[in-house]
Amino acid sequence: MPERLARSLIRETSGLFVLGIAGVTLLLSIDLLSVLARFLIEQEASLATIGRLLLAKLPWFLHLALPVAAVFAVLVAGGRMARDSELKAAQAGGIAPRALIVPLVAWGLAVSALAVVNNGMWEPRAERTYQRIIDGFLYGRAPTASDRDVSFLLGDTIFHAARIRADRDDPSVASLEGILVRLEDGTLLTARRGTWRSQEREWILADGWEVPVEGDPIESDGVTLPFDLPADPSETLARGETLTLEEIQSRIVEQRLAGSDVRDLRFELHRRLADAASAAVFVLAAAALALRVRGQAGGVAWTIVLVAGFWAVWTFSAALYEQGVLGPIAAAWGTPAVVAAVGASLALRSDAP
């Protein structure tokens, strides 16, 4: 009997889950189109192009929809069972309420596994496609990747450029502007411009000066410096949201070797994993609450309360990270940890009379 009830509960929850994903995705797509409406009209975008934009944003919609739809499905299914007195019948048959939480949490873990794949692989790749379509309207060709005030520490040598711009046709080459290099012996090299060639692993400085530790500055026509960073400029300059989890981990290793700050990359990595895990912790809290819900309307109401509360704390933790109050791991995992603690507490008390 418990297994049959569990299978029935999972089937009902899964159906509501699909319905929840469709509803959240529809709302988000309408919101996106309302923001882009004027731009798409001015650019005379075709229906096919609009469809491609929405398809490219689908993984981003799923990023938000998966945890929300999971909590909606569990609470509404629980409310329906309470309304039809199925929970009371199960308890009368000797089935402890906590026994119904276990299969739902297992189902939530499966949703989180799907969310990891979506957040870590599908979403960044789709974001690249989305940006290419938008950039095609604005520039005809996608703009080159660039960044400002970039520093690297390789060995005891510090490399700094006020601006790095990747070459449009060759991802292994980038132009440098406002260059300052401090060598191991304290000698400073400056240049207005230069080139980074990653295949040759070198920086080529032009129109610069050499400032020794002692003595007068010496004008330099050009100098080539070894720059042993195992990454192309286009990879180094790519935005974090367009990188897969594997690419983020590789960049963290590379930038640590180069002495660069990796806090933002660590936050991006852990935030994506934490967002995926939120589906499972949402289901845990929702499953414990479902045993106390007395109807489907109550399930919908608790869905709104949980999602709104999670969103408020999630946004606040990100703000604390940006202000330097929280580290990347604490800011990323703090909110799911709180929800997991509340859910576990409710689940442990679920058998109480």
Q: What structural class do helix, strand and pairing data support? A: alpha+beta
Q: Spell the H/E element sequence.
A: HHHHEEEEEEHHHHH
SS summary, helix count: 9
Shape designation: elongated
Radius of gyration: 27 Å
Q: Which quaternary structure do these chains form?
A: single chain
**How many structural domains does the protein architecture include?**
2
Major sheet: 6 strands, antiparallel
Helical fraction: 55-70%
Low-confidence sequence ranges:
none
Number of strands: 6
Tell me briefly what this model is.
The chain is 63% helix and 16% strand.
Describe this structure in words.
The structure is a single chain. The chain is α+β, with helices and mostly antiparallel strands and 353 residues long. The protein folds into two domains: 2-139 and 265-348, no CATH class; 147-237, Roll (SH3 type barrels), CATH 2.30.30. It has nine helices and six strands. It has a six-stranded antiparallel β-sheet with strand order 1-2-3-4-5-6. Strand 1 (146-154) and strand 2 form a beta hairpin. The chain is elongated. The chain starts with a helix and ends in a 5-residue tail after the last helix. The model has no long low-confidence stretch (mean pLDDT 83).
